Amino acid sequence: MRKVAVVAAGGTGGHLFPAQALAEALIARGWTIVLASDERVAGFAGDFPAERRIALSAATYKPGDPIGMARAGFAVMRGALQARAAYREIGPHVVVGFGGYPSAPALVAALWERRPTVIHEQNAVMGRANRKLAGRVNTVACAFPTLLKAPPKVVGRAIVVGNPVRPPIRALAEVPYAPPTAEGPLRLLVTGGSQGARLLSELVPEAVAALPDDLKRRLTVQQQTRQESMETARRIYRNAVVDAEIAPFFRDMAGRLAAAHLVIGRAGAGSVCEFAVAGKPAILVPLAIALDDDQGQNARLLAEAGGAEIARENQLTVESLSGALEKLLTNPARLARMAAASRSVAIPDAAERLADVVEQTASGKIGLRD
Predict the structure, then answer these.
(1) Which range of residues forms the domain containing residue 118?
(2) Which of 4-13, 142-151, 188-197 has the highest mean predicted lDDT (pLDDT)?
(3) Integer-rounded Cα radius of gyration of the chain
(4) Is residue 370 in some structural domain?
(5) Count: domains in the chain
(6) Do residues 277 and 221 share a domain?
(7) CA–CA gap between residue 50 and residue 68 (Å, rounded)
(8) Residue percentage of the chain with pLDDT more than 90
(9) Backbone phi and psi for residue 176, each to the nearest 5 degrees, phi listed first
């Protein structure tokens, strides 16, 4: 009999990339994968290895908005009924939720039918959707050793597995970091621009332009940049005579990450864990408006290990970022130490560890019992 896993994830890359990594690990073990999400998933999940996709009704709300909360509740119940009907046809052996409000209906339906359930929390701070369901699902897995905002009983039984990364990123765990030589090229990778990082799109080129000329001559920049900021960024780099490649999105992120001497990026859970697996020194800029400062808490994993510097938005200026870049890029020994520290907290086999948890939950070997 085929083993069927429903993987439920919100329609953003931060939820879908680890869900895809788990799906690929389970498929290698003989599982059939069904993806459950909302309509946004089409823009992110073109390569998701699911035999079937279930579109579920879902909605979110702003804290303190009772009308929005009521509407979201009705949407989740409608989505749960849709999922329940699908489950009776496909008979899933386990339902795995990766957070985001589109994952809630799939988990609610599984709880109604007493099907084995797993939640994976990618961030150091448990998200709202996972927080509301974590006390009822069979097993809770998490990416970080800390799990803030989670109920105490959930924290006590959570299993740290790491954050599953895509196979090309996983392969970088075996690639040693090569620090820049005294007069050799310097390669800077800047991520996060395509998802609204206006600050990085506009400030990084100016900070690079303010570097000493001898550094700029050696520097190659690859930067993800907001569409509306691309021409400005190109002009700044061109006027500074800096070799730069600008694009809204890089598909070959693994190759670019492998070549980078230093990375600048937001501190989403996926980014932080990918930087750690690749063993890259980083300057992390947590999103200031992130709920519960989840990005700031994510960044602490690398910063406390010595693998990253944290640059808070309210303290970040062209001068401060340019100074930080100069200090790091002119100190290969420190970059090498940061790379080793970053890799020391990585869990490259997170997808396999999570797959183990999913299989054990499906078979009843671990997790809460009814």
Answers:
(1) 3-164+348-362
(2) 142-151
(3) 21
(4) no
(5) 2
(6) yes
(7) 32
(8) 75
(9) -70, 150
Q: What is the mean pLDDT of residues 193-202?
A: 68
Q: Are 226 and 195 in contact (CB under 8 A)?
A: no
99 versus 334: the higher-pLDDT residue is 334
Tell me the two tokens of residue 37. 């999400």
Tell me: do 177 and 315 sit in the same domain.
yes
What does the chain come to in residues? Answer: 370
Q: What is the pLDDT of residue 196?
A: 46
**Contact partners, residue 146, CB within 8 Å, separation at least 6:** 124, 297, 300
Any residues with CB less than 8 A from the CB of 345 and at least 6 apart, and which?
A: 276, 301, 302, 305, 307
- Domain for residue 23, yes or no? yes
According to the model, what pLDDT value does residue 274 have? 96
120 and 233: one domain? no
Asked if residue 233 and residue 189 are part of one domain, the reply reads yes
Q: Are residues 330 and 181 in the same domain?
A: yes
Q: Is the residue at 336 inside a domain? A: yes
DSSP alpha helix (H) spans, the chain: 13-28, 66-90, 104-112, 128-133, 152-157, 167-170, 198-209, 213-218, 230-239, 253-259, 269-278, 294-305, 318-329, 332-344, 350-362
Give the pLDDT confidence of 125-163 residue by residue, as tens digits. 999 889 999 999 999 999 999 999 999 999 999 999 999
52 beta partners: 34
Residue 18, pLDDT score: 93
**Can you give the pLDDT at residue 61?**
67
Which has more confidence, 345 or 13? 345
Both 147 and 260 in one domain: the answer is: no
Give the dihedral sign, CA 36/42/45/47. positive
**What are residue 166's phi and psi, to 5 degrees?**
-65, 150
Same domain for 196 and 126?
Answer: no
Total-model pTM? 0.92
User: For residue 310, what are the β-bridge partners?
Assistant: 284
Instruction: Indicate which CATH number applies to the domain containing 240.
Output: 3.40.50.2000
Same domain, 110 and 131: yes
